[in-house]
Amino acid sequence: MIDDILSETKDKMQSSLAYFEEELQGIRGGRASTALVDRLKVDYYGQESELRQIANISVPEALQILIRPYDKTSVKSIEKAIQQANIGVNPNIDGDLIRLNMPPLTRERRQELVKFLHKRMEESRVAIRNIRRSANSDLDEFEKEKMISEDEKQYGQDQVQKLTDDFVAKIDELGKTKEEEILDV
Hints:
This protein is of the alpha+beta class. It folds into two domains: 2-26 and 106-183, Topoisomerase I, Chain A, domain 4 (Orthogonal Bundle); 34-101, 2-Layer Sandwich (Gyrase A, domain 2). Helix content is 60%, strand content 16%. The chain has five helices and six strands. The strands form two sheets. The protein has a four-stranded antiparallel beta sheet with strand order 3-4-6-5. Strands 1-2 form a two-stranded antiparallel ribbon. It is elongated. The model has no long low-confidence stretch (mean pLDDT 90).
């Protein structure tokens, strides 16, 4: 019983951490990153497709993203999707290539990004704590129904707390690394 709860709790916390890591990739640091655009939705022949499915995306220079569509007729659709995404960059069409020249980050923009990062970190911590609360309430329920003893419940809660502490520490570590990347000039 307790092992099932712990396993389920760890899985939920792991997927919450994975979601946070994915969000971090979309936050621009000092360098260009394909993660900034690879999940953009593009109207491709009337169907929403992620940009990475219809184009090759690379970073040839530190502040440039190069998009090479597999189908040359999709250039206009990709350009429109980038403009609508409002990522702060205007696409430059170069024949059948699209170049995104990333402007260097200003100090104000870096501070905004750090503030945004801290907000995302706190949301992720809250998600982890909500998972902990749910697991602890399951343990309480099992004890009420006499499926586990009070000692087993206490052991389960201690283990859930250890998981919570581990995952919150991972979020903090990832956030600290991303913050250094943003502030690195």
